[in-house]
Write a structure and sequence with these properties.
Number of strands: 0
Shape: globular
Number of helices: 6
Strand content: under 5%
Structural class: mainly alpha
Helix content: 55-70%
Length: 164
């Protein structure tokens, strides 16, 4: 039997995704040189100037998408952009993990919660492998939210996720 989530759960999931993106963005905006160092650590063949542009643009895109999701404004656009960003993040973390790079993903600042930088748990949570799987979960969540939202706009035609 296909159990459907109540509308309040979808709202909570959208808000959670928005809050996570806002937190990631603020962490990067608060420490732009650390974020740029994290990007360089991926050792991609991209020009340094492109990585510098990414270090400036990506956090603002994440912040905007997060705020739009929380406010439930232009939700489809925010989710589509966010899916694109998460796919790029997934590719970046996946290639770093596959190459065995021992790097921090540069995504979230857990020190605001008093996390010890030398802790093994924190090191694992910031690892490329954990970030890769986290991105898979987040892109799946964003995809489900976008599908549900587009079906809502379409009148719920043949939508198994639409509330009864």
């Amino acid at each position: 039997m296909n159990e459907q989530l109540p509308a309040r759960w979808w709202i909570a999931l959208r808000g959670l995704l928005g809050a996570l993106r806002r937190w990631a963005a603020v962490s990067k905006l608060a420490n732009p040189t650390d974020f740029l160092s994290s990007i360089y650590a991926y050792k991609t063949p991209l020009p340094r100037s492109l990585m510098q542009i990414a270090a400036v643009v990506l956090p603002w895109m994440e912040l905007l998408c997060g705020l739009l999701l929380i406010a439930n404004v232009w939700t489809e656009t925010a989710l589509a952009i966010l899916i694109g960003l998460l796919v790029i993040f997934g590719l970046a973390t996946g290639q770093a993990w596959a190459r065995g790079l021992d790097i921090s993903c540069g995504c979230f600042n857990l020190e605001v919660f008093g996390a010890d930088r030398s802790s093994k748990l924190l090191k694992f949570i910031e690892s490329a492998s954990f970030a890769f799987f986290r991105n898979l979960v987040l892109v799946s969540l964003a995809g489900m939210l976008l599908r549900r939202r587009l079906n809502e706009l379409d009148g719920g035609a043949a939508n198994p996720l639409a509330p009864s």
